[in-house]
Design brief:
3 copies of one chain form a homotrimer. By secondary structure, chain A is α/β, with parallel strands linked by helices. Chain A contains 5 helices and 39 strands. In chain A, the strands form 7 sheets. The first copy, chain A, has a 10-stranded parallel β-sheet with strand order 8-11-14-17-20-25-28-31-34-37, with no helix packed on it.
């Protein structure tokens, strides 16, 4: 299973990742590890300069580094302008992606007679597939998954254990949903009548694009009417809540515990850091970046980086934080001004 | 399945919702959609003035609007003082509420011999009901639900897939719990002993009132002693955490990712917006409104609107935010004051 | 099942908890309740002085209190320097810990032929245990639990319903995981390539130490390489998200909805209050305390108490909050300074 460093650079070249051996190209690596954990026979990497001091101490057989990194001792280096991309390619080449158990179409799965399942299904015991569900080829469906009536699911989809998909939702191709996530539950849709809450039937659905990956224990509300949408290529971490009718663009990246209220429009390639929140009925432009714990309360222009609560553009936020931290000094200066002024008034008044 | 606009207004009248046709009462609508999505044969609505520009462009066959809304072209309008209530009624009339699969009492559900189940059960394969559980009439229990020993559950309850109810909890009538929510897990109850944590058995339970709806992937701790309580008519969105021994009043509305620590008392008809948090052992009065991301650290008087972290009444918070945003100007004014004062001191001193 | 107060104090003595009866030692208590809920035959406690007024009104047959607590009427008191420790011991003695259903090794559990299960298993119908899983003695595994291939699980472990453990993870002895928690899902590991996200296989695992308790609906990412770690004796509440490669020390206590990004090092005996967040690639020292909703963005020294967003040491935060709340006054003082100064300048200029 091992590869020589020379073989690795050839593989990188085939992936359009330039990389040169700085050391002994015949050295063999058979797995990948962090600088700290790596041992003989392992490939490691330095991507974040913060870990540079660990480079000198590593026992890795070889390390992916940027071309300009200097080392104080003899090491086998693989120099590349993008160590992170090379690392990714190396892990894929050496370790590969998750291998799923092979259940075929288990007789202990509950599949409704009207469901249409594509070629090469891999459906576990204890999975439930309801009326009129359509599923494409190569589906991997773990135990405890429930797919409600009328859902349409693409090819090469992976649903990890205990994922629940409510009725009428649509998943594209190559969608992966991690354990415990819920797709298409009702949103918080109630009409207020005399301080009681009258439930509005939530008759829309959720549409998830191709190549979307959703983390564990997320919740994505179905729309009241129409669709909540997650665009192609978007990736979610865990415990994320998306409100009803919200539409999220392509290639977004959302960190854990992000919450977005209903009827929000999020552009493409938007990054939301951990625990960020967005109020309902606003728009966030393409390529915007929302900082950790930021609370977005107004439309965000494309490309802006927003921080704080309420969120403001990053420079404004940093200036505010800096001034707040200097407030004790300002307060003292105000005191001094008053003292000096009072003294002067006395002096002048008395003059 | 369609209704004419005249029939709709008659139906609204039967629901005590005044509504008048402004246009052709013989037009038929058979489903409901947003202004943007609506097509021929669909009813739409304008409730939030923010979407007024979409009114002119909609292809809906008819639109619910307030009496005073003006339109620049010929449209079929249904004028009513409360378009949202009318919309709710129209969706219920035209689309109805969720229809559940009908399993009867599945032989593949694991139901303990001592469990007592009311009339017309609808219990899925893969549901688990333990010793001495009592369930009322018309229960709908999806796959993957686990109800531990000694729980008491009312009539017309719906438990969506993978809901877990720990031992001894009580659910009222017409309770709906969405997928993946956990009711009655242990709270974080430990006694500190020499920097170790000694577990305190959590021997209380959770009591959920009538007409409560809980979103997906919520967690409601059982009380250490006594009961955690969710009052009648209260509605939760998703990913909400309620601490042990907390008692929440009737008709509250909690948005996603709200977190309330233990031993909190929340009054009736309290609204908590997304990601708001409340520390332990405090009280929140009736009709209070807690803003998104607010952090409540002290008792809240009835009817107050609280914002910020630490949360303060809305006017105070807005004033603080406004001043913080003007801090750079204040800082400059302090600099000018110092300069002017120094100059004056020089002048006077030299005079 | 009841004990006299004298018997209780003897039991406390055996647990090294000093306690004296102040009243009638022959009184029998058979359960424990809060001051408010307690009735005849029940033991209660006063630990938080906030509830002192409930002491006078309680109907409990006896109350655990500190030695110096004064009461205005005749009551049976159990005086002890640590009422909370005594309460814990009393609840354990009188009520005990959760009793689980006894399934033995259910024939309706899906256990792979290669799995090795220790003595006295208690594995429910509908549990799934995959290839090459090793489980110690006395395991209690509820319905809907999924344990993926190659996991290693210690003795006396309890996995509540619908817990999911991804491949290759390691759990110590006496670990309890509450319902719906997910251990070892993929972290948010993608390499950015032309504004697309290329998935990095997450080939590490999660290692959970002895005596760890994890709440409901948590998510703990597997490491990209190496291990994410939860140290011995650490306790989590619900809906907590831990990022990939993060290592948490021993005897930590995390309140609900805490989120920690990837590659964070957390020391031992660290407390994180509700909804606190930590950015990636930083370190938090032993015995640090992170306040509710705090956003930690830099390394934290051992023993510090951090508040705010961005988090700062508690004194600094309190000073900032106090000044922000006094900003309107400061602003007025600046106005007055300007007015007085202008007047003085006029006076001097005209002099």
């Amino acid at each position: 299973m091992g590869l020589t460093l020379t073989q690795l650079t050839e593989f990188f070249a085939s992936q359009s990742i330039p990389c040169e051996v700085d050391g002994d190209g015949s050295v063999v690596v058979s797995s990948v590890a962090t600088l700290e954990d790596a041992r003989d026979g392992q490939l490691s990497f330095l991507s974040n300069p913060k870990y540079e001091k660990e480079l000198a101490a590593t026992r890795a057989s070889a390390v992916l580094v940027r071309p300009d990194v200097k080392v104080s001792r003899k090491m086998n280096l693989l120099r590349t302008p993008d160590p992170y991309a090379a690392l990714t390619a190396a892990i894929v080449r050496i370790h590969g992606y998750r291998q799923h158990p092979q259940w075929g179409r288990s007789a202990q799965a509950c599949v409704h007679a009207s469901a249409v399942i594509g070629e090469k299904p891999n459906i576990a015991p204890g999975a439930h597939i309801d009326e009129n569900v359509r599923i494409g080829r190569n589906a991997t469906i773990y135990p405890g998954v429930y797919i409600a009536r009328g859902c349409t699911i693409g090819d090469d989809v992976v649903l990890m254990p205990n994922v629940v998909i409510y009725e009428g939702c649509v998943l594209g191709n190559r969608v992966t949903i991690h354990a415990g996530s819920i797709i298409g539950e009702d949103g918080l849709g109630y009409a207020p009548v005399n301080e009681k809450w009258v439930k509005i039937p939530q008759v829309g659905n959720v549409i998830i694009g191709d190549d979307v990956e959703i983390g564990a224990n997320c919740t994505i509300d179905r729309a009241t009417l129409g669709s909540s949408v997650i665009g192609n290529g978007t990736k979610f971490s865990n415990l994320i809540a998306i409100g009803h009718g919200t539409k999220i663009g392509e290639d977004c990246l959302f960190v854990a515990q992000v919450g977005i209220a209903g009827s929000v429009g999020v552009g493409r390639h938007v990054t939301m850091a951990g625990q960020a929140g967005v109020v309902g009925h606003i728009s966030i432009g393409d390529n915007a970046v929302i900082g950790a714990k930021a609370g977005v309360t107004n439309d965000v222009e494309p490309g802006l980086i927003m921080l704080g609560q309420p969120a403001v553009p990053i420079n404004e936020c940093k200036r505010q934080v800096a001034i707040v931290q200097r407030l004790p000094q300002l307060k003292n200066e105000i005191k001094r001004l008053r003292r000096d002024l009072d003294q002067l008034m006395k002096q002048v008044g008395g003059g």
